[in-house]
Structures are given as structure tokens and as C-alpha cells.
Amino acid sequence: MAVHGSSDILVDELFETTYRLRQFVEARLREGGASVARLRALRMLARAERPLRMRDLSEMAGIAARTTTTIVDSLERDGLVERVRHPQDRRAFLLRLTDEGLRCHREAEEIDRVALAEATAALTAEDRDQLRALLARIRETTG
Q1: What is the pLDDT of residues 5-14, one digit of tens each?
Q2: Which long-range contacts (CB under 8 A, 24 or more apart) does 33-40 make?
Q3: Per-residue DSSP letter, 53
């Protein structure tokens, strides 16, 4: 049962479900040496058509620049990301995945996929469609 943090039990249950889902996936990723935050950064860098500025990564992830710096520093220390000089701005650097970063990204994506499939296995295709439609209505109202 959700902790009552708002005036609406539905909202509390949404937050509780999201929290538990993240913890579930986080535990699986940790076993493989990753985390949700690191996977998100790797995912955005892998999907980008070109190397990204730190600010771009921060905005795409919706996290503070300081948090992005901490994540990128960790990824760089582990040899997964490299900083390269920006071709037009000598003061700026761009972020690019290394070959090891691409390999780790693929592994973490598979762990994430399996964990999410396990977490949602009890939902039928119809359940998934209905839940997505309901969540879309909430997003539309709050968008």
C-alpha cells in the first residue's frame, strides 16, 4: 500500500509504483555494474547522431548540470565516455561513447529490457494498451 504523500491515493500509488519499478530495475542493473542514471546517459549518447555537449546531455536527461557532471566523470573514469574538443569552440568539449561504452550500453539495455519485461509480465497486451491510454490522458491534462 502506498504511503500517503498527497491528497489523492491514486497519485500516491502512481508514485509508489514508479519508485518500486525504478528500484527493481536499479537492482538488476547494479548486478551488471550499471545504474539507471548511467544507463540513461549512455542511452542518450548512443542515440545521438553526433557527440553531445554536457549541457545538451543535461537538458535531454532533465537533470541538473552538476548531476550530469558527476555521472559523466564516472563514465569517463570507467573508460565508457571520452571528452573531445569542440571543433568550433576551443573552450568546449563534446561527449562521445568509447567502444567499451557502446558495449556496456548494449549490455545495460538488455538487462533493462529483461527486468522491465519481468516487472510487467502480469499485464496482458490489452492491460498495457489501457494503462498507456490512461497515463496519456493524465499527461495531456498536465502537459
Answers
A1: 778 999 999 9
A2: 33/104, 34/104, 34/107, 34/108, 34/111, 37/67, 37/71, 38/71, 38/74, 38/75, 38/108, 39/105, 39/108, 39/109, 39/112
A3: E
